């Protein structure tokens, strides 16, 4: 059986040697068109089983599944090398090249799984100059995988801008899901997961950093940060002042590795402990959201007194109702009913009070 897979037009010349091959079919991708490549696929059960059992090497069986051209964002382990999906391994084997944040680091993973695909460095210091050549290869129909040092690419890692450009040019961007420090830490934190905000790394400048912490401090959702180990004490010192020392936090360190640690307590406690301890390894830090403040609803007597005071100062009844409702936790419908009881039909209905009644 023959299967067509989008590949560069340069390979079309080799198709002439294939017997009984039908006329070439062009696969469109947005406004571009790519010539397909032929990959011979065996339909026998024995060959299929051999493919499923093969875990190492770049043999033909590892290329037996159809993979379209495009940019593949492949999640890789955040520590334990076994935390990788079968699909991720297959894509990394099948790709023409792998863009890697640190080729020395990534080569260990590839060697572990017998992946021989060429590595090209792609990090924050060279992503701009690499972009043009990468896009050219993608336009020609190549399969390019992007990996970071750990976890899911483009999440506080290089690749975001490349993914944006590919989307704008109708080049497929395909996520290969897997490990993520964010999801890993959040799921085991013991804090609320109904709503959370991923902040990532804080700005380097002190004023910008504190402004960002002030925004997070008033939010009710769990806040998730990436913190370099050498800046942990600085972070805790500033967060304790802005969030308050009693706010709960979780420090997730070296997740999935031998020395995995989840420290739980208050920001004040953490600040004291880590003022002397110097932890190593990757850190994901979570802080509980601000508790919702519950305002006590004023009594009817209090509401009536406020209404009378506003009326005595010359406000119309409808304006008095509006001001009392906005200045307290009482519902406008309730304040309006009290005003009717006090002053009868003297109240001039407003659009809001009419809707609520």
Describe this structure in words.
The structure is a single chain. The chain has 357 residues and is an alpha/beta fold. The protein has 3 domains: 2-179, 3-Layer(aba) Sandwich (Cobalt-precorrin-4 Transmethylase, domain 1), CATH 3.40.1010.10; 182-287, Tetrapyrrole methylase, C-terminal domain (Methyltransferase, Cobalt-precorrin-4 Transmethylase, Domain 2), CATH 3.30.950.10; 300-356, no CATH class. 37% of the residues lie in helices and 18% in strands. The protein has 13 helices and 14 strands. The protein has helices at 45-53, 86-94, 103-112, 127-139, 160-168, 181-189, 206-217, 232-243, 267-273, 300-312, 317-327, 332-343, 351-356; strands spanning 2-6, 27-29, 32-34, 36-40, 70-74, 97-100, 119-121, 143-147, 173-176, 196-200, 222-227, 248-253, 261-266, 283-287. The strands form 4 sheets. It has a 5-stranded parallel beta sheet with strand order 7-6-8-5-9. Helix 8 runs antiparallel to helix 9 (267-273) and helix 10 (300-312) packs across helix 11. It starts with a strand and ends with a helix. Residues 1-64 and 350-357 have low confidence and may be disordered.
Q: Which stretches are low in confidence, meaning pLDDT under 50 for 5 or more residues running?
A: 1-64, 350-357
Q: For the terminal residues, how far apart are their CA atoms?
A: 72 Å
Widest sheet: strand ordering? 7-6-8-5-9
| Helix segment tally | 13
The mean pLDDT is 81
C-alpha Rg (nearest Å): 30 Å
Tell me the domain tally. Answer: 3
> Hey, roughly how much beta strand do the residues contain?
15-25%
Structural class per helix/strand content?
alpha/beta
CATH superfamily (homologous) name of the largest domain: Tetrapyrrole methylase, N-terminal domain
Q: Assign an overall shape.
A: elongated
Strand tally is 14
Q: Sheet with the most strands?
A: 5 strands, parallel
The CATH class name of the largest domain reads: Alpha Beta
CATH architecture type of the largest domain: 3-Layer(aba) Sandwich
In helices, the fraction of residues equals: 25-40%
């Amino acid at each position: 059986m023959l299967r067509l897979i989008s590949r560069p037009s340069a390979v079309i010349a080799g198709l002439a040697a294939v017997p009984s091959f039908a006329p070439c079919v062009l696969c469109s991708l947005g406004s571009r068109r790519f010539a397909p490549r032929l990959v011979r696929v065996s339909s026998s059960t024995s060959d299929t089983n051999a493919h499923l059992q093969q875990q190492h090497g770049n043999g033909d069986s590892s290329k037996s599944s159809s993979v379209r051209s495009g940019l593949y964002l492949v999640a890789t382990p955040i520590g334990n090398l076994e935390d990788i999906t079968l699909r991720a391994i297959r894509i990394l084997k099948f790709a023409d090249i792998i863009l890697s944040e640190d080729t020395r680091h990534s080569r260990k993973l590839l060697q572990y799984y017998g992946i021989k695909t060429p590595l090209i460095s792609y990090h924050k210091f060279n992503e701009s100059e690499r972009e043009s050549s990468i896009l050219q290869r993608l336009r020609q129909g190549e399969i390019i995988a992007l990996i970071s040092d750990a976890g899911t690419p483009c999440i506080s890692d290089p690749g975001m801008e490349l993914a944006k450009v590919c989307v704008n040019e109708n080049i497929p961007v395909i996520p290969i899901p897997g490990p993520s420090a964010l999801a890993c830490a959040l799921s085991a934190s013991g804090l609320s997961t109904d709503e959370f905000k991923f902040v990532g790394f804080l700005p380097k400048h002190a004023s910008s950093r504190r402004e960002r912490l002030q925004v997070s401090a008033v939010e009710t959702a769990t806040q998730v940060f990436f913190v370099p180990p050498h800046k942990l004490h600085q972070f805790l010192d500033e967060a304790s002042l802005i969030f308050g020392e009693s706010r709960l936090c979780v420090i997730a360190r070296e997740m999935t590795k031998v020395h995995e640690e989840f420290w739980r307590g208050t920001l004040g406690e953490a600040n004291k402990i880590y003022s002397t301890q110097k932890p190593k390894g990757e850190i994901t830090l979570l802080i509980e959201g601000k508790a919702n403040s519950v305002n006590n609803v004023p009594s009817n007597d209090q509401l009536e007194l406020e209404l009378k005071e506003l009326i005595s100062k010359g406000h119309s009844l409808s304006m008095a109702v509006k001001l009392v409702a906005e200045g307290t936790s009482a519902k406008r419908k309730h304040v309006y009913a009290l005003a009717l009881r006090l002053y009868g039909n003297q109240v001039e209905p407003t659009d809001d009070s009419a809707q609520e009644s």
